[in-house]
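Appendix B. Extra example for self-study. Work through it before the problem class; the solution is given directly after the inputs so you can check yourself.
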Amino acid sequence: MHSKMDDAIGILCCYVPNFLIASACCDQPGWTERPLALLGADERVVAVSAAARRSGVQIAVRAQAARLACPDLHLQPLNIQASQARQTAYLAALGEWELPVESQGWGLAYIDLNGIAHSTAAVQPLATDLGRRLRRTLGAALQPALGWDSSKFTARAAAMWAAPGRMKLVEQADVARFLAGQPISLLPLSPPHLQQLQWLGIHTLGQFAQLPATAVWQRFGAAGKLAQQWARGKDNRPVCGAAATTYPPVTVDIDPPTASLQPVMANLLASLQPLLRTQQGRMEGIRRLHLAYCFANGAESGSVLDFVYPVNQPARIEAALMQQLGAQPWPGALTSVRWTLLATGEVVVAQLSLFAAPASRVASLGDLARPLAERYGAVFFQAQQSNASHPLPERRSRFVDVPSLA
Amino acid sequence: MSATKRRRLESAVTAIHERYGPQAVRTGAEFRQVAAIPHIATGFAALDAITGCQGLPMGALTLLSGRTTSGKLTVACKFLASAQRDQRGDVAHTVALFDLNRTADPDYLVRCGVDLDALLVVRPSLQPQAVDLLGDLVQQRRLRAVVIDCLPDWLTNRAVSRRLYASLGRLQTQLRVAQCALLMLDDPSPPWRRWLNLDKSGRVRWNAALHIEMRREQWLTESGVLKGYRAQARLLKSQWVYGFPSAPMEIRFNGTVKARETW
Amino acid sequence: MPAIRCRNGAAGLSMSRLWLEGEAITVHLDEQGRPTAFTWCKRLHRLLQVQQRWQVDVDWWSTAGRARREYLAVTTVDGLFCVIYQDLVSREWRLAKVYD
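Solution. Structure tokens for the complete assembly:
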């Protein structure tokens, strides 16, 4: 049998955290000082700065809801052209090695190092060189975090673990140990699945990896099975180079022809269902979709549906299609719609992980003590250093009653 | 191992895999990788290496016993500091210290790396309610680790010990659900008392996933000046390890307490 | 660098258990007035060595807060490492810290 160890694949993941925000701040340096959110074409938030996220602004919420969460919010439309230009420059810099580079959306790309470097000692100088080059090309604000491993998922987890400008190289022997402590929200599972795992007390990839495979399959389906394999460090997806995969077009006949949106949408969504199911199982989503319309009077037109992040949730697809078809001029009754998938991508983790935040469990001492103070009395204290250099040890610090602090 | 023996072993393993599946036989290294138990490192690599879970287990009870000046409180403080931090080293979790004998030294905690803003110090009176308080705190699911300093303070009071024994089962479930690590500091008992289950902490030990005993072995001096001491951590019980391995540790007093294993 | 460094009297020591008011102890002295043992918790702890000795006189402007003490960092025969002090006004001995 051909094992993964024998292949000794090496994948370098380059990840620029919050690429869209960082890119926008490069154009407008003044924006870095305020909580910032970027709005997509559908008037929903597509990117959130760290300050805005702390105030409770989430991706995919409407502008009004974002402003409610953070009245101080600086809400700006996403300049897609400028971001795309930076993404192109980023990918061009990654492609200078002439190795296969797979772009997976904003600021995330994999480089296939197979046959080039198989150990951390060999990868480190390469990664250092790449990091320096990217910093020179794109500036310090867009410098990536680098992660290396023999599988895509672990490489990405390593890149997300590392801080920008740093690298995390995971040797084969350390994969299980590294992944075990990582938060479950690294897996691009659907929000309900992530929430279920939270309720079950599964917070880390190590805990998820230990669940019986059959139970995971029953509860979470194909996506859960795949996610568990990734959590165990088993991910055999290859790095697909720049050569774009072509997908056959699918024609949806509207019978009888109609000028009404509702039956068209129903037919379109029904035809997209098998694709979405497959993509959900692979934790992928649609990035680009071409739509060609044929009307009863012989007229034809077309449009392209672009998603800022890959999407596989029917409701999101439906909303985007509705908006696209609504904005399209209809010269007559529609007889058929032909859709062609132009690009797919991994579902973005950061977007979904907003539903669970196991990494930040710093509870305020007041919140911990207050519910119990009535029953147990004044037994909760916070230690404080009052005068760290005092010659008498007992006068260097003190204990303060926690409820009274609150 | 000779090449012939290795080849024979490999062919035997392949035959077993073909017949019974890949899970039937695994190397020790593979087994270690699969069995990654959620844990919190103590900061003492030698100690972490013998526990079988690379540190102290989350969602379970650990008993750490040792005489005064054996290093047990240093291990506990380092463990609290480690529990507060995420993998990047940022303070990301809250922990609690049950300071039953009211002798916690904040200055020392800071020197061990504990962030006082994320440390809840609990000083209950010696009453059975103190045990309930422990359960209630864990049940909030907001604490990553709790240290009880120290268990004999509870066990010497009949009412409190009775409540503790009665609560141990429920407490274990609460720990498991909250994924909270509980470390209880204890005095050592002679082996014969442990063997006959005559020691007061026997019931707690029975419910502990891990029991470590610390012993100071030797003062470390340099030019006649005391600079620390060498201690030995011995594993008396572990859910994941057979036998009683031990680990040497060195604890130094150079301004900040530095922990490093002996090599 | 000495292992136990006394900067301005007592700073630099790393100890663990701290008694805010000091635990009252009885100290046994030899003919020269040097401590040889102390009794704490009804147990006699014979001193192995006095590792460090220093005096403090702090907060002299405050009547209530002034402290004039002589500190001793000692190791005992039964393996304790602790800090004891004598209040130079009341002549009482107290246990300040025990390394655990």
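Self-check: Chain A touches chain B through 46 residues (CB under 8 Å). If your reasoning did not lead you there, revisit section 3.
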